[in-house]
Structures are given as structure tokens and as C-alpha cells.
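Exercise 7. Predict the structure of HTH gntR-type domain-containing protein from Sphingobium scionense.
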Amino acid sequence: MMSPGTRQGEKVYADLKEAVLSGRYASDTELSIAAIADDIGTSGSPVRDGLHRLYGERLLQMGPHRGFRVPSWNADALRDCYTWHGHLMRMAIKAIGPKALREPVAPEGWLTDYSNPDRIVATAERMFLTLANRSSSNELVAAVANAGERLRTIRLVETERWSDCADELVSANVLARFEPGSRLLEAIWNYHRRRIRAANMLSESLKSRL
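Solution. The predicted structure, encoded as C-alpha cells:
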């Protein structure tokens, strides 16, 4: 059983993580431990511990004076992360092999509400994680989960710039269920290549959005 202090620390960490992943803090924002602690009504210690954990997960960067700041997605960093995520998914799909999956890889199946940007982003993240899980590699699952979290804010920008993000997920579901292997591999790589090529536009859109 967790002690009260541990429970408080976990709650602060979870709240901080949600704030960072939801885009509540603008990119390149310097995070003040004292200001955050005052805002949520706690001491600085659990906030500092939570920020250190997020830094370890690469969801924050080290700022000046040993503080923390929200990462800024410049085009080069964005291309790098999309390429990394694409390579991870290629490894997962190759590990799964050509055997057809018996159900859609999006967790909610065909009933997902694709009209809501938050749902589109959540479904994309979990769909890729589902494919990674089918690879039976715990390391691959952990890497895909982390990359998905880091890309969450920029994926919201994708839904604002492109009207067919939901269609991409539907197509991936169809291919995963009926034509996995090379066809699914090609579709997933096209998904990533589109974003790699649009990294400049997406980076600038994020800056104007925040």
C-alpha cells in the first residue's frame, strides 16, 4: 500500500504529465517549480520529482539554471522523431508477419468517433501501440509508447491541417485485418513519410497554435 506522500507524488506526476501532453504549456515554456506548486497546492518536492521523471521520459528538456522547459518541435527534431517512430512500426509489422489480424487494431474498432480531434489522436496512439504489442517485444512496446506520447501535441496539429487523418486510421484498420504484411507496411510508411515531408509546416503551425 502506498504511503500518503507517495500517493500525492504520483498524483502530482500524473497531473504534470497530462498538462504537458495536452499542450497546456506552450512549447519552450520555462516551468517554475514554485509557481506549479502554488497552483496545485502542494510543496515543491513532489513537483520537482515529477518534473525529473518527465525529463527522464524525454517529455521535458533541461532549461537554463538546471530548470526544465517544454520541448520546442523544430522541423529537424520533428523529422527525427517521425522517422524513429516509422522505423519502430516497420520493425513491429515485420515481427507480426503476414498473418491477418482478426480484429481492427484501433481499440474501439469501427465505432471510434473520428470527428473529434482528441479521439483521432488517442486512437492513432493506441493503434500503433496495439501493433507494437503484437510484436511480442517489450522493448519495442516501450519505445512506441514513449514516441507516441512525445508526438501527441503535434498530432493535434495534424488534425487541424489535414482533414483526412481519420481516413488514414480507417485504412490502416482495414489493411491490418485483411491485408497485413507488405501492404500494411507500405501504408504505415506512407503515413510517416507524409509527416516527415511536412515537418516544416507542422512545426510552424504548432508555434502559431500556441
